[in-house]
Design goal:
By secondary structure, this protein is mainly alpha-helical. The protein is 63% helix and 0% strand.
Length: 380
């Protein structure tokens, strides 16, 4: 299970990815408590969702290989298919099995039934993976990387151009999402011209470029002293704390008065990026101070698998567990935080043997197409 720490990976980025995926697990559990009208959970949800998915995009930009944009189109698309789209398909197929035996929470689907499976497959083909909602992020990252492949060659010659492009892409994408009704389940339509979340990919590409800029400036935080990192983390935390509640909209997903990247719902044009960047800085600074513990690094290196495995908890475990918590435990901030942390730790621990199994048997199907395994050879 443990990965060697003497690799060419940037370990503090892997640690930051661990924190990011932990926030996903925590946030999805807290969401269920919020839907049961717990105000403490609602506040924590708004705090986390203000930045945690943007964090994944910044980290993806940080480790992006700039030379990929020089590949021919065929090579680029082949690599993205096997490293992104194939895991999306693989986990969709796996997650179509449990509804036959288990009752789960699925939006607008009656499972198991022919109509339910047919509707779910259509939604999945258009980017909304109904059988494993958390895997939507794979479609988003494909969209961001498609934008990157088309655009980066025109801005890569200077850091100034990169930062300018980051602002332009964010602003254009933000305004387009306000004007164009591309993806609106509230109107009974989850299928539209939404392939690879291209509408949101334009917006978030701005943050992807921020990640590229940080890497170019050789921002490697685990080389700095805690005397520098800790005050920075405190400042970043205070910025998030003081601004996340100020973002009251306009939100395009009106059911939640929160940032929800899945629905391209950002809120205030200036407060959203301010809080998001501060939240990303907070996690990166904490990662820079975190000891290189093997399990944390290993989990951070397998966030794609963990994101998809979170579907089990999202659809089957979190809903009944949250109802039990609301019926039997105190509703205080400390209690909700403690239960959320315990659920997150337990959920991640339960995922460990499955992550190991997928990496051991079929790494090619879970985002590592260059590897060879006992069942399949290298795919690219």
């Amino acid at each position: 299970m443990s990965a060697p720490l003497t690799t060419n990976r940037i370990l503090f980025i892997d640690i930051a990815r661990f924190y990011a995926i932990a926030l996903v697990f925590y946030g999805h559990f807290i969401e269920e408590l919020m839907l049961l009208e717990n105000p403490v959970a609602a506040s924590q949800y708004k705090f986390i969702y203000a930045f945690h998915m943007v964090l994944f995009i910044v980290l993806a930009g940080y480790v992006a290989k700039e030379g990929d944009v020089d590949w021919d189109v065929k090579r680029f698309l082949k690599h993205r298919f096997f490293s992104r789209l194939l895991p999306y398909i693989f986990f969709t197929l796996l997650m179509m099995i449990p509804p036959v035996f288990l009752n789960g929470k699925f939006f607008g689907l009656e499972l198991p039934s022919f109509d339910g499976y047919a509707t779910g497959l259509v939604n999945t083909a258009f980017g909304l993976p109904s059988f494993c909602i958390p895997s939507w992020f794979l479609m988003l990252i494909i969209g961001v990387e498609l934008v990157h492949y088309a655009a980066f060659r025109f801005v890569r010659n200077s850091d100034g151009r990169i930062l300018t492009a980051a602002i332009v892409f964010y602003a254009v994408g933000y305004l387009l999402n306000l004007k164009l009704d591309i993806f609106n389940p509230l109107k009974g339509r989850t299928v539209g011209w939404n392939y690879f979340f291209i509408h949101e990919a334009i917006t978030l590409y701005g943050f992807y470029l921020v990640g590229i800029y940080l890497r170019r400036r050789q921002i490697v935080l685990d080389r700095l002293s805690a005397k520098i990192l800790l005050p920075g983390a405190v400042v970043a935390f205070l910025i998030v704390l003081l601004t996340y509640q100020l973002n009251t909209g306009p939100f395009t997903f009106h059911l939640y008065n929160d940032v929800v990247i899945l629905f391209a719902s950002h809120g205030h044009m200036l407060l959203f990026p301010l809080t998001a960047i501060a939240g990303c800085a907070l996690v990166l600074l904490i990662a820079g101070m975190t000891r290189r513990q093997k399990t944390i690094v290993w989990l951070g290196q397998n966030t794609l698998i963990l994101m998809c495995l979170n579907g089990i908890f999202y659809h089957y475990i979190n809903p009944p567990a949250s109802k039990w918590v609301m019926a039997n435990l105190p509703h205080s901030a400390l209690s909700i935080f403690g239960v959320g942390c315990a659920m997150t730790a337990a959920s991640l621990a339960l995922c460990i043997p499955f992550v190991w199994m997928f990496n051991r048997l079929v790494p090619q199907l879970v985002g590592k197409p260059k590897r060879k395994g006992p069942l399949l050879g290298s795919l690219i």
